[in-house]
Amino acid sequence: MGNSKIISKEAFAKLRDNFRREHKTIVLCHGVFDLLHYGHIEHLREAKAQGDILVVSVTAARFVNKGPGRPYFNDQQRLSFLSELDCVDYVMLSEAVTVHEVVKCVQPDIYVKGQEYADAASDVTGNIGPEQQIVEQYGGRIYFTQGEVYSSTKLLNNFFGALPEAVVQMSRGLREKYGADVAEQARKIVDSFEKLNVLVVGDIIIDDYVFCKVQGLTTKDAAMSTRYDFRERYAGGALAIARHLANFAGHVTLLSMMGPEQDIADYIVEKMPPVECRIVQDSHFVTPVKKRFLKRHPIRQQYEKLFSVNRLLDIEGMRQVRYQNFYRNLEELLPQYDLVVVCDYGHGLIDSHAIGLIERKSRFLALNCQTNSSNHGRNIITKYHHADAFVVDEQELRMPYGQSLAENDELLGKLCHDLGSTSGWVTMGAVGALGQHGEEQAQIPAVTLHVKDTVGAGDAFYAIAALCAAQETSIDLATLLANIAGAIKTNLVGNSQPVAKVDLLKFLATILNV
Length: 514
Fold this sequence. Notes:
The chain is α/β, with parallel strands linked by helices. The chain contains 18 helices and 18 strands. The strands form 3 sheets. Strands 10-9-6-13-14-15-16-17-18 form a 9-stranded mixed sheet, sandwiched between helices. The protein is globular. The two termini are 35 Å apart.
């Protein structure tokens, strides 16, 4: 790296023994240090005053979970900023979510944190307790600095364009409406989701992603020629929604159907803890498998889909499926749950009899009825007669009414009325989302324009929106929380991971820090 202060963990471990023999006190600070400011300087000066050797570890960019587009500055820049400070003796990169590996290497006598971490209950990551334990395990102690708390995030949001301007204005409006502690109010809402027991009913989908490099066109028939890189399998559809919900709700059960494929059954068992799965198998049912072929954009961290091949149940096949066991499970489970989340992808699971059971027996029903290339014009949300809450995209909002020129707010109000819904949302891609609760509507802009893969973003939005609706969350905060979930999902490839509660809360804090 060219700077003697910037050091690897392995190199510092060799120096550490010399410092011990010289009876020097080692102090460790750790953080993102995205934008070095006066508060950091005071924090580091106070830290250095506690000992002889000050080591600062910096979280590598790929482990920073403050939301898409963060950190603003790259690893090398942040290391270099810190190495220029006289009070700092060594700087190292921490390639992990937690500081534990750095502590094992440095074995500090004193681990220094800002005073905002002194109250462990206010730390959304829950890391401060385990950090203190591992520091004490190596004979050290924790020290909280007393200087005024500044915020790199606030400076980046307000002066560096780290957030879209519409998001900054929205955040200022929410702080004015709810007060400076709006992030803490929203956190309490998210915490309240733990009270809910949720039943997810819907089509499971297996997503096979084949990553390729495009070589060009074949010379004989002008077909696209690609070179295979690797393949990954993800749990999509209702599986993905259940995994999102399981990170927030108290208990989540998934009810669905699949074909006889043992390899898929084994894969679901592997991927779905802690979700309780009741998946009815039938020899005539076809488990939806969607194989997508993708290439990575050469510059942006984004994947472009080349084409897809779907294996789905056709109409003739539906006539042969024995649904009775699925119906029996519906009748048994529906009344037991606070919230029923229906994920209707139109792949042959939910018929008119199942709809009748769901509408009659659900205590609180959230509905997502999706239009896709395989069911276009046949899976319209108004085949349901009632839902307490729903989420649609713009196409799904317009299809029941055949009105291409009507405004979204008018159609959303009409659909809420027709379904007898207390809450409803229409997602609008890069524009954001429009929500309605009662007679009140709120439009919240998209909270990031950094996108890797949009597949499943609507499902993540729906999962959080359904929880908010069940807890009667104010429509602007509910739409913001759901938007954040969708934004986090767009920065994950496929349904490789569910949206984590800590990531949502940290991104929420980032957005509202203006």
